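Quick one:
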Amino acid sequence: MAIFKVISVADSRKSLSKGFNINVLDIKTEAHRANGFMPDSLHYGFYERQKAGDSHAFENLALPNTSQRVAYRGGGELSKLAVTLLLENGFDAHSLSGGYKAWLNN
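Output:
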């Protein structure tokens, strides 16, 4: 199993402001996403897939393999699992430290 990588909110904001090629994956439920999300983030229903026992949730994810991914949820815990699976599938991925709550507060 791959070890997850973490990125701080400050480093994420800096990379995004410099125009780096980053896919921000919102892995919250649709209901939670309706309450707010990071600008330009892509919603991917990982939470629902993981809860249903889908161990292949990211195998057919169609994103360019040249860009970095930052996954987040509300507080950052489930995104660590998502990032581990993304890394196992060959993606360069990081969990947003503190999740969406940290994004809002920083």
